[in-house]
Amino acid sequence: MLPTLILFRFDTPFSQAVAYILAVLFLGYGIWAGWRHAPGSTDPKSGKPVPPTREERMRRAAAYAVSFGVVLYLGLHYALPPGAFLGEKGEGLPLHTYGLMLMAGFVAAIMVSARLAEREWGGKEGLRRRNDVMDLAVWVVLGGILGSKVLFILVTPKDFLDGLASAFRDPSRLIGALGGGFVFYGGFIGAGAAVWWFCRKRNLPFLRFADVIAPTVALGQAFGRLGCFSAGCCWGKPASVHLPWAVRFPGAGRALDLFGHPTGGAIAWSSQAEEMKRWVIESTGQVFDHPVPGSVRVADWVAQHGTTLPIHPTQLYESLAQLLLFVALMIARRYRRFHGQIVALYLIGYAIIRSTVEVFRGDAERGTLHKYLEQVPLDAWWNISVSQLISLVMFALGVTLLARRSSAAGQLPASGAQPA
Fold first, then answer.
1. At residue 334, does pLDDT exceed 80?
2. In whole angstroms, how far apart are CA 333 and each of 254, 345, 410?
3. CB 68: neighbour CB atoms within 10 A?
4. Fewest CB within 10 A of the end CB: N or C in the chain?
5. pLDDT tens for residues 338-393?
6. Could you give the 3-state DSSP secondary structure of residue 361?
7. DSSP symbol at 259
8. How far apart are CA 411 and CA 378, in angstroms?
9. Residue 417: C-alpha distances to residues 119, 199, 207, 253, 361 (Å)
10. What is the C-alpha separation between 9 and 183, in angstroms, rounded?
11. Where are the alpha helices (DSSP H) in 37-171?
12. Cα 96 to the center of its chain, rounded Å
């Protein structure tokens, strides 16, 4: 695994000049994207879309310029040393595999969604819907980040409050306190709310638009879980030493970047290194919340070996399952009978995948009943996670949507011109 591919430093005038040039190009792209994708209005008489005016394009370009400018300022402030213009922290620019895979998944989802939207509506209408998907991408990111952070705070309030307390003592840690810690289900709910708001604002059929996007969410998750594997987060339970695909994540100093330089250890290793309240039987991978014959404290084992225990690669389990779900949903699109069918199948499929993978998850930090009710034994089969609870709701929502829509639906036309 490669948590950090490479760390770019900006200690020389030449490297700083390169950083400024890239920043200007990035800002220029943002302004151009805002100008090009500015939405127009709708003719109140004919109901047909009207191309955006020059003023509308300028307003959209200005809004994008402000958004991109804020991101650039924070990035330069973090990456450049104090002596450089806009510099302060001098931390450089790390290229994390996790972030790279998330970006790859997001780009793949947007590009496939845009293509599906173009084919869904067809003709000039399809081109407009493709542009809608590109505009929607910004709001999906904002809604996803906000929803993910909110659920993280609700699930782990103590961790968030501890981070804020640390930030008050040292203001330089404020970004870390606000930026660290996210939960996928929260991001999914937030992104879904952003899609609903966007469709309502643009007067688009929500379920039809959601059917276009749903398969690509699974595609993006397939990439994202590969990023989780590279970072060593969302890890699995200890596995038997006889499990051939069990993995051991390296600790600090043993994890290397692309050029062989030491980097920080995997998140899974950091967690197990601090685990003083659990014991494990090494040969079987069984974990207990009290010492038993033949067991060893998890933290002691990790300190001795410099890696995690052999654990289930739950990130790879879900990545493969999400890829299969994407393929299944793309096939199902050919046989759909009503709008909302694909998003319903996604909700059902993902709920099953997530609930199953959660059985093999070992990161208790994500929140289980034991975390909130100490009376619930850590190793009890009914010590379910918060994600499994949400999965039950998602599954029920998908089944309800499928049942209600199918009972009143007729066969959709095979052409791109489908009813809204």
1. yes
2. 46, 10, 15
3. 19
4. C
5. 999 999 999 999 999 999 999 898 887 666 666 666 666 666 666 777 788 888 99
6. strand
7. T
8. 50
9. 10, 18, 16, 58, 45
10. 31
11. 54-79, 97-121, 123-155, 157-169
12. 14
Count the neighbouring beta carbons within 10 Å of the beta carbon of residue 52: 18
Selection from 37-51, 103-117, 130-144, 169-183 with the highest mean pLDDT = 103-117
Determine the Cα–Cα distance for residues 79 and 94; give it in Å rounded to an integer. Answer: 9
pLDDT tens profile 83-97: 888 888 887 888 888
| Tokens 């400024």 belong to residue | 20
Q: Return the domain boundaries, the chain.
A: 1-91, 92-237+314-407, 238-311
Q: Which residue has the tokens 């638009």?
A: 209
What 3-state class would DSSP assign to 297? strand
Q: How many CB atoms lie within 10 A of CB 261?
A: 11
Give the pairing type, strands 49-50 and 4-8.
unpaired
Contacts with 123 (C-beta within 8 Å, 6 or more apart), sequence order: 416
Closest C-alpha among 27, 208, 33 to residue 135: 33
Q: Which residues of 155-169 are buried (b: 16+ CB within 10 A; e: fewer)?
A: bbeeebeebeeebee
Q: Look up the pTM and report it.
A: 0.78
Question: What's the pLDDT tens digit per position in 199-253?
Answer: 998 889 999 999 999 999 999 999 999 999 998 888 998 888 889 999 999 988 7
HSE at residue 67, side-chain half, CA atoms within 13 A, is 16
Overall size of the chain counted in residues: 420
The whole-number pLDDT of residue 148 equals 78
pLDDT of 301 strictly over 50: yes
